[in-house]
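Sequence and structure are no longer studied apart. To make this concrete, we show below a single chain and its fold as tokens.
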Amino acid sequence: MGSPFASKYTDTIPLPLDAPHTITIRKLTGKEVAEAQEAHASGLNSGQARFWSLRFRRILESGQPDADVLKALADPLTGFERFTMIRAGLLAWTYPESITPVPANAAAKTPAIDAVADLDDEAVDFIATEILRLTKPGLFLTLEAAEVERKNGSGGSIAG
């Protein structure tokens, strides 16, 4: 068993959307995982944020299954707010833009710059997915096992 401290787990990975750039990410703390789920559940009476992603998956499973529901159930990001995860887990990248928002400077006549908010949807999905993969690898193993089971015709449901 490894260290229980999230700060001990970092990884630098290539950004396939824009080679040769890389990102450096870290594992989220338990508090940050809860915050990402709470941010996703905001506006709903969700109870304890720590269990929101599991509860949301069960809500989806109990409805009429269609392609969109099945896709959401298979997505490990379901129940987690992507930008909350990126703000917490993205440590660095090889772009010249700062990952930390830069406030406007009236004296220098420079606008506020938030490079993370400027990311396109594919980059947001990729970065958030990689942070979640480092933080909760079991979600991905479960999905892979469910996919193998589905392909083998064994039935069963997708677990989260």
User: Anything to note?
Assistant: The longest strand covers residues 10-14. The CA atoms of residues 142 and 159 lie 7 Å apart. Helices lie at 30-41, 52-62, 67-74, 82-89, 121-135, 137-151.
